[in-house]
Write a structure and sequence with these properties.
The protein is an alpha+beta fold and 93 residues long.
Protein backbone atom coordinates (compact mmCIF):
# COMPACT_ATOMS: atom_id res chain seq x y z
CA UNK A 1 0.00 0.00 0.00
CA UNK A 2 1.07 3.57 -0.62
CA UNK A 3 0.57 6.90 1.12
CA UNK A 4 -2.98 7.17 -0.24
CA UNK A 5 -3.87 3.65 0.87
CA UNK A 6 -4.23 2.54 -2.74
CA UNK A 7 -2.17 -0.21 -4.30
CA UNK A 8 0.31 0.84 -6.97
CA UNK A 9 -1.94 -0.65 -9.66
CA UNK A 10 -4.91 1.37 -8.43
CA UNK A 11 -2.75 4.51 -8.31
CA UNK A 12 -1.65 3.97 -11.90
CA UNK A 13 -5.24 3.54 -13.06
CA UNK A 14 -6.34 6.63 -11.12
CA UNK A 15 -3.39 8.56 -12.57
CA UNK A 16 -4.26 7.52 -16.13
CA UNK A 17 -7.89 8.54 -15.65
CA UNK A 18 -6.82 11.95 -14.35
CA UNK A 19 -4.39 12.32 -17.24
CA UNK A 20 -7.16 11.64 -19.75
CA UNK A 21 -9.43 14.18 -18.04
CA UNK A 22 -6.73 16.88 -18.10
CA UNK A 23 -6.00 16.14 -21.78
CA UNK A 24 -9.69 16.44 -22.69
CA UNK A 25 -10.03 19.71 -20.79
CA UNK A 26 -6.88 21.07 -22.45
CA UNK A 27 -8.07 20.05 -25.91
CA UNK A 28 -11.74 21.03 -25.79
CA UNK A 29 -11.83 23.71 -23.10
CA UNK A 30 -11.80 27.42 -23.82
CA UNK A 31 -8.10 27.67 -22.96
CA UNK A 32 -5.43 25.72 -24.85
CA UNK A 33 -2.76 24.75 -22.34
CA UNK A 34 0.81 23.91 -23.30
CA UNK A 35 2.66 20.84 -22.01
CA UNK A 36 3.95 22.59 -18.88
CA UNK A 37 0.55 23.88 -17.82
CA UNK A 38 -1.13 20.52 -18.52
CA UNK A 39 1.58 18.72 -16.55
CA UNK A 40 1.33 21.12 -13.60
CA UNK A 41 -2.45 20.65 -13.45
CA UNK A 42 -2.09 16.87 -13.60
CA UNK A 43 0.63 16.92 -10.96
CA UNK A 44 -1.60 18.95 -8.62
CA UNK A 45 -4.65 16.72 -9.18
CA UNK A 46 -2.68 13.54 -8.55
CA UNK A 47 -0.86 14.84 -5.48
CA UNK A 48 -4.18 15.95 -3.96
CA UNK A 49 -5.37 12.37 -4.44
CA UNK A 50 -2.25 11.06 -2.71
CA UNK A 51 -0.65 9.68 -5.86
CA UNK A 52 3.11 10.08 -5.74
CA UNK A 53 4.31 11.54 -9.04
CA UNK A 54 7.05 13.68 -10.51
CA UNK A 55 7.17 16.56 -12.96
CA UNK A 56 9.84 15.92 -15.58
CA UNK A 57 11.38 18.63 -17.75
CA UNK A 58 13.48 17.97 -20.81
CA UNK A 59 15.19 19.84 -23.63
CA UNK A 60 16.21 18.90 -27.15
CA UNK A 61 18.55 20.73 -29.55
CA UNK A 62 18.20 19.98 -33.25
CA UNK A 63 19.60 22.05 -36.08
CA UNK A 64 20.14 25.01 -33.79
CA UNK A 65 16.54 24.93 -32.55
CA UNK A 66 16.01 24.37 -28.85
CA UNK A 67 12.75 22.82 -27.74
CA UNK A 68 11.59 22.00 -24.23
CA UNK A 69 8.91 19.67 -22.93
CA UNK A 70 7.21 18.75 -19.65
CA UNK A 71 5.48 15.54 -18.57
CA UNK A 72 4.43 13.66 -15.43
CA UNK A 73 5.63 10.26 -14.28
CA UNK A 74 4.39 7.88 -11.59
CA UNK A 75 6.72 5.09 -10.52
CA UNK A 76 8.72 5.46 -13.76
CA UNK A 77 5.59 5.37 -15.95
CA UNK A 78 4.91 8.37 -18.18
CA UNK A 79 1.30 9.43 -17.67
CA UNK A 80 0.63 12.21 -20.14
CA UNK A 81 2.90 11.45 -23.09
CA UNK A 82 4.60 8.64 -25.00
CA UNK A 83 6.59 6.23 -22.84
CA UNK A 84 9.79 7.05 -24.76
CA UNK A 85 9.59 10.82 -24.26
CA UNK A 86 12.57 10.70 -21.90
CA UNK A 87 14.65 9.26 -24.73
CA UNK A 88 13.81 12.17 -27.03
CA UNK A 89 14.44 14.95 -24.50
CA UNK A 90 17.47 15.31 -22.26
CA UNK A 91 16.25 15.58 -18.67
CA UNK A 92 16.91 18.88 -16.91
CA UNK A 93 18.05 18.51 -13.32
Amino acid sequence: MTKSGLSSGKQIEQARQASRAVAIAARYGPYRANCLKRSLVLLRVLRRRGVICELKLGAHLEGGDLSAHAWVQHDGIVLNDDQDIGDRFAMLR
